[in-house]
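Thread: quick sanity check before group meeting

JM: Hey all, I'm pulling together slides for Thursday and realized we never actually wrote out the predicted structure for the chain we discussed last week. Dropping the sequence here so it's in one place. If anyone has concerns about the input, flag it before I start.
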Amino acid sequence: MLLFGPMAGIFSRAEKELSHDWTLTRSGNHGVPTTIEWLNDVLPSGSRVGIDPFLFSSDAAEELKTAISDKNHELILIRDFNLVDEIWGESRPAPPKEPTRVHAIKYAGVDVASKLSFVRSQLDENGCDTVVISMLDEVAWLLNMRGSDVPHSPVFYSYLTVEMSTATLFVDSNKVSEEVLEHLKKAGVKLKSYEAILSDVERLAEKGAKLWLDSSSVNAAIVSVFRSGCDRYMGKRGKTGRQIGKEASSDDPTTKKHGVQNMELNGLYKASPVTLAKSVKNEAEIRGMKNSHLRDAAALAEFWCWIEEEVRNNVALTEVQVAENLLEFRRKQDGFIETSFDTISGYGANGAIIHYRPTPDSCSSVGSDNLFLLDSGAQYVDGTTDITRTVHFGEPSPRQKECFTRVLQGHIALDQAVFPERTPGFVLDVLARSSLWKIGLDYRHGTGHGVGAALNVHEGPQSISYRYGNLTALQKGMIVSNEPGYYEDNSFGIRIENLLLVKEVNLANSFGGISYLGFEKLTFVPIQRKLIDLPLLSPSEINWVNEYHEQVWEKVSPFLSGNPLNWLLVNTRPL
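JM (edit): ok, ran it. Output follows.
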């Protein structure tokens, strides 16, 4: 068997954990085939390739089908049997059963009825009868609900269909309390079992309903059922559609072809109407994000005060122990729920692994001879945080200081950006890299991702990245990360990350009568001053650091006392 994975951290972990029965293929590296290329290379012509359609988006399945057809291979959608699940057997963990909860209106800002009304207006504008929503954060946002089925994300396994006069949530009823049931009833939302989604989609298709499906996220099983239902509907009228693939039947060892009606007639394949609406935060969501970031900043100030003292006293600490202690500081904050992702706690060379995850049996000790990178975040009842700081507990080398300072310059340049409305994020990416480019350095990840409000720490559609394919314009109310970095293999890693709120900027001019946008900082945690190579900074960059630290002191000091307060005072002094 082969494992295809996209990230260096995954490769390193896989090398340690996979048995000799596995071959690790480092996809994305030069000369390494993609999954599709590998299939076409090793399979004899005319092979049948089976997939679990619940685990592939419709777009991914379509891409796979098209690519393997070049070698006369056939894609089979195996809806009723998953080989991995069969091998797993009784040792497979049971599905999560944690209850869902209502996300209070004081945090959500807009009630469910108003959100559903917006979706229905979009259905009407696009000539659709129903939209199928399968992205878990979109379901949670639209219904003002939260759950805990997925680690680090307050979502729950579900589907949602919104029609012009009704809406249906497909979810395990055991997760729905009386309070949640009443909440849904008030908004006119019905409940059905999680598994009923396919039969409902099939019913809608067979009566000729036009469905809005986001094929980039809706799984291939739903789209396949919809298209086969459309084919039956159109067949009654002497018409037929195109075929996506074959679907395996548990009742018949052979497979049956299912046609699909032309998408212009019965299906609209387009980004979900919820995606963009969710990304533009309302006043209540913005207020919650600001408040949760201040509490998070207080927890981090207490943590950094603690760890500096521990290292100074030569207390042995592993990367895992550091992450565990940070969690305890956050747990003391009001409204804390869980971490928003696995903490990246990387000392020295481990910090150069972009998505490093320490484990008890393979982590390093944190000392004072190298850089320490800490990327962490939290889920609070009113907001989601994500922050990275890089520090040195001893004396940094000139090389480390120069690299850190150039990363900081990129961070400052992006933070200070002013740009016309309708500007996509990739246009701004160069600002974060230009200082590194001047000495021939760079980093292999995006500069910024969208962040949800008490939802997923990574959300779309916006981003700031060198990948120019994402044309989503940044809009007032969106939240993005600002996280340039530099990683020296087998030596050290540097990243500085704050979250930013996109805001409107009042300027003396308005070329073309359009608005201009900029950023407002949400993250307020000191940047280590001794890592800054001061002669590299311009007067305006020095002023930025001093003003930022002044804001940190003003906003966070009221939450602290004792040693952490003194630590904050020392670490926010002017350069």
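AS: nice. Residues 1-8, 241-245, 249-264 have pLDDT under 50 and may be disordered. Residues 283-312 form the longest helix (30 residues).
JM: adding both to the slides.
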